[in-house]
Amino acid sequence: MKTDGQLQRDVMDELEWDPSVDHADIGVAVKDGVVTLSGYVTNYVEKMAAEKATRRVSGVKAIAEEIQVRFKSEPHTADHEIAKRILDIFSWNVSIPHEKINVKVEKGWVTLSGTVDYYHQSAEARKSAARISGVTGVSNLIEVKKLPVTSDVRERIVAAFKRQADLDAAGVTIYTEGNTVRLGGRVKAWHERGVAERAAWAAPGVTKVEDNIIVSF
């Protein structure tokens, strides 16, 4: 089992290795396997990339994310300009039903609302909004319409697990109730837990995933 010092070095090395993260102004502290990220980045996407890189490190039990977005000496982007750019991006992306999504921007913080048919549409809208210059954060309040869950949803999820080279499907338990999927069991690394959750979200008709998988180091 890694010590907190070893885990801190591993997280710092992972942040330095990831080309999408400027690690120079990011601080890393570890206590009992819980990693606290602090400091500054220049955009929201980089902030999310730093969190994602940290989750890839074996031994990370939880993350306290305190990174702030601090823009460079570029002119401040007005809220209405940010909103227009987001709406334009949505209209160009065929994966996003832009006519079903509402966009609100206040002091650079974006709030998305509305109702879509599939989870991936909501996720794509959030990611697209986060890429816009001037965005300091995104609250995704988009709801996924409750569609009938297919009878073979569990089989679809198991098949998706087995296609993933990094995931041992035998260690994950799957229960379905209505439009909800509950995941349990144990995996060996944090990223395996993420693979399992993404596979569950990809199943048709799923509107909620409860991830109770335990990471065993």
From the spread of the alpha carbons, the general shape counts as flat
How many domain regions?
A: 3
What can be said about the biggest beta sheet?
Answer: 4 strands, mixed
CATH top level assignment of the largest domain? Alpha Beta
Helix vs. strand class: alpha/beta
- The gyration radius over C-alpha positions equals 19 Å
Strand content: 25-35%
Question: Explain this structure to me?
Answer:
The chain has helices at about 5-15, 45-55, 80-90, 120-130, 155-165, 190-200, and strands at about 25-30, 35-40, 60-65, 70, 100-105, 110-115, 135-140, 145, 170-175, 180-185, 210, 215. With about 220 residues, the chain is an alpha/beta fold. The protein folds into three domains: about 5-70, Histidine-containing Protein, Chain: A (2-Layer Sandwich), CATH 3.30.1340.30; about 80-145, Histidine-containing Protein, Chain: A, CATH 3.30.1340; about 155-215, 2-Layer Sandwich (GMP Synthetase, Chain A, domain 3), CATH 3.30.300.130. Strands 1, 2, 3 and 4 form a four-stranded mixed β-sheet that branches.
Write the layout of secondary structure elements.
Blueprint: H1 4-17, E1 26-31, E2 34-41, H2 44-55, E3 62-65, E4 68-69, H3 79-92, E5 101-106, E6 109-116, H4 119-130, E7 137-140, E8 143-144, H5 153-163, E9 172-177, E10 180-187, H6 190-201, E11 208-211, E12 214-215
Parallel strand pairs: 2-3, 2-4, 6-7, 6-8, 10-11, 10-12
Antiparallel strand pairs: 1-2, 5-6, 9-10
What's this entry about, in short?
Pfam families: BON (PF04972). The chain has 217 residues and is α/β, with parallel strands linked by helices.
